[in-house]
Amino acid sequence: MVPGANKVWEMAEPLLRELSLGQREMVGKLLDGLRQQRPLALIFLMFANIETLAGVRKHKQFSHLLGQIQEALERIGASFFPSGSSFLVKNLWNGSFLFFLSFDQSLRREELHKLSAAFALLVEEKTGLTFLRLGGQKPEVQVGAAFLHDKAGQIEEIIRLALLEASVFNLKEAQEAREALLEEFEALLGQEKLAVDYEPIVSLTTGQPVGWEARLRARGPTYLMSQELLLALARETGHLRWLEGLYYRLVLEEKPGAEKGQKLFLLAPVGEEKDESFLWREVTRWWEGKGMRAANLVLILEEPRCLGQLPVLRQALEQYKAQGFSLALRSWGMNPFSLLSDFSFQFLKLEPSLTAQLHLHPRKRALLEAIVAFAQKLKCSLIAEGITDEKELLTLVNLRVEAAQGPLLRRLGESAEGVEHKIVALAGKSGPFPGSTRGFLAVGRIAESTVLVGRNTLVREVKKIFEDDESLDGVVVVEEGRPVGLVMRYNLDRYLGLQYGVPLYFERPISVLMDTSFLAVEEDTPIEVVSQLAMSRERLRLYDWIVVTRNRLFRGVVSVQALLDAFTRIQLEMARGANPLTGLPGRVGIERELLRRAEVGEECAVVFLDLDHFKSYNDKYGFEKGDRVILLVANLLRATLKRVGDPEGFIGHIGGDDFIVITRPEMAEEFCKQLVARFDRLIKRFYSPEDRLAGGIRSFDRSGRETFFPFVTVSLVIVDQVGSAYGYDIKKIAEKAAELKKQAKLFPHSVYLRDKG
């Protein structure tokens, strides 16, 4: 039974004092919700048998465990509670938690009780392995729920009344709510009100989907929507086998639109001897009928579910392997070596608690770095699940995790910006500098032209092209300027060298033999990123060309040899601490300079510079002329610093069109003033006479719309007192610069802004 009202109130008093004194924002949201007559509820949840972990309580591990449980509750709540709802979870006391929930739809009292019973069931399921490992038994979760009513006026009294109601929600009522939930689930199965959604699994290098996971959901009440809850209810009621069969039938009916080369992730039936009721053989036949290989079908095993079934599991996995399927291990990281020590997996799906608020936890980042290295040794691809925050996503990109899925990726996919653009932008970010890039060169700089043919060009005509130019390794097939296929010389010779190859293909269009799964990247993709993509291709395609596009139109091709040569040059320059284009010091040199000034206690000002409308200039005039603009900036920085008389001034090139200058505070403003004037005068020389007369160029924005762009301008921001105000901390300095840059971007002309610290 939930503790009595007095005990609950005693535990809640510190929380209410905290709400009154320190969390005005949350109090405001609660009161605003009440005034708007939005349903607001309180759920009191307690792990009744947490005292069994007494052995852990004697150590510091117990507070860490409670933190883990709260983190898990936040994750479970984020995926469980209805869309449009918001919640906050607070740890009242050891093993007791309080949830505040705000809904955007009406909810009856009995529905709230069923919602809380469903949540408690899912919490038991998700935290079961932790309790088994530490205490040798499953968690016993007790729950109470009540609405908050705007009767007393003061937030403390409103919460107190709700707590009183929740605390008298006794064991009998909780059991009745649970039984009603189970009955509703069985009715749902009887009417087969279930569906399958396909969640994209997105590459954290390209932003492209590498596969799709078929996830089960209910068409009924919102609290029965999640796949995790449906599986938990099926196990509770003994309907797991039947639910799996329905899941596979729905996969067959839905027919996901995955493209060739992408993977379909499905739940693997484990625990009982398989038969045709699971229909997974029919699923594979349908998948292969679309031209996919068995390896593109990935069967997902839930690690906690499999732990007690190793003998049956071994037999099942051997059969899956013999048939050529790939395997993924979900919830990995909760008990990391239990299955990996005995079985081989191609994918590891990280337990969401490992990535929750990853950017805020150095220990988690260090652990994930080790996991990335460990996965590379095992030749496994890591997939992070349940990603909800952009800062988590950026951290995963920087740690070289291969792929991710979750609510954030779904939202990005539906946004106007698109997930692909967002991921590539994140892949370019590194370190504390605003706008910095991981590398210094985009792949478009090394792209070369090649022979283009149409999809209806005959195979014999393409063969003649190769015969006439022995140095040519491939041709690109285009349609209305867009690359649609790649034909490498060796691949064409392989087809024509087959028995009857010439009579079979010679007079047919090249579209029957072209490779439609070639690697294509936008021209502004960093060379380092393209190198990773190219070398992760399957062995037979490892040395195929990379096709480079500009707004998805053909721009050129890059050979693997040229790519690796450029990448090696970049690595050498980075090791030297210099930018390969300008020769100016990079991030390492910048940090060393600040450290040197900190050691002698020298006060200084830091100037951050970047260009506006530079991408549109590159799109119109190309990277070669874009490089000349970058060199103009570098030369202007040197000359202007010399002109204002600061021989000790430092110039660094963060990357791309981002620069940094460290100078004496009294010279910073004059430096910026002179640089703006000289840049605005000289930049016009880099435009054609027609564009100079027009005052700018017409080019395409990121959404592909043709737009007028004025001349390239320069934005400078001065951060003062970097020693006394920011302690020479480059991260803090860069954060202040980012704030100022947002203001600078509001001006339509070149500008400099100064922060007084």
Automatic annotation (TrEMBL):
Residues 602-756 form the GGDEF domain. It comes from the Bacteria. PROSITE patterns: EAL (PS50883), GGDEF (PS50887). GO terms for molecular function: cyclic-guanylate-specific phosphodiesterase activity. Residues 164-191 form a coiled coil. Keywords: Coiled coil. It holds the Pfam family EAL. The keyword RNA-binding does not apply. Residues 178-426 form the EAL domain. This is EAL domain-containing protein.
